[in-house]
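Board notes, transcribed. Complex of a protein with NAP.
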Amino acid sequence: MTTLNKTGTAVITGASTGIGAIYAERLARRGYDLLLVARSADKLDALATKLARETGRAVATVTADLSKADEVRALEQRLRNDASITLLVNNAGVGATASLIDSSADDLDHMLQLNVLSLTRLTHAVAPGMVARGNGAIINISSIAAVAPELLNGTYGGSKAYVLALTQSLHHELKDKGIRVQAVLPGAIATPFWDRAGVPISHLPAAIVMTPDNLVDAALAGFDQGEVITVPSLPDIADWNRLETARLALGPNLSHTKPAARYQVA
Ligand code: NAP
């Protein structure tokens, strides 16, 4: 059993499997108490019992379907009133591999409820308390699909681009208030995500697939290094920095009185 000092409570959504379950394990070993959220009560309880036994941390669970507005609101209420929360890992999410026209509108709606709306509402629930306490961090699990929307389903890519943009905006908003934010952009990770999204992981080239353990360890290393955006697979960070530099350079020219000359508007 560890004797680490308490570092507060980390809330991890989608902690029952995959990336979220690895975050739970790594954060407990870093000294966080945990609040684990997902729909599968049996998996959450088994993980909570194991991590509490192995790390000595307090591990609580909340069974909630974060695609359902009333269940998100109940969790928001709980988070708003818990001053021990120092970290929110917005990880719960689903993907899809079919094209938009081959998808059901209800499935796309469900994806947006989970990947976008619940993430926004949970962030909104914890951020004011963190600001008031001058301490806290929010880790948002985006995807490389945020910058490669031609891959997979466009609604999925769009939902992850939202997560990236929200994180960039939150960094701008909260960086001087003692709050850290990070967006993590995983490539293909070997988790149940792929079966659920309609393509078995075995159908992907092995050379592009990372384990969730390596993904989370790299993401936490990026967090420790102060990164706002972490792309664990990207060999050369200068490539990302060039994209950011080009994006920011657009700024002074994105809003003018007159349309650009090429449109030949009088
Ligand atoms: P995963 O193993 O399928 O895990 C998804 C987690 O979200 C599970 O704990 C699941 O638990 C939970 N979840 C799903 N629907 C939910 C709902 N309606 N309400 C509450 N919880 C729900 O997949 P993963 O790869 O770890 O995915 C984690 C995150 O990484 C997602 O946001 C995903 O978009 C992102 N990501 C994954 C990959 C990849 O290649 N795997 C790549 C880039 C980004 P329950 O089923 O028990 O609810």
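Residues 9-263 form a domain with the Rossmann fold fold (CATH 3.40.50.720). Strands lie at 9-13, 33-38, 59-63, 85-90, 136-141, 179-184, 188-189, 209-210, 229-230.
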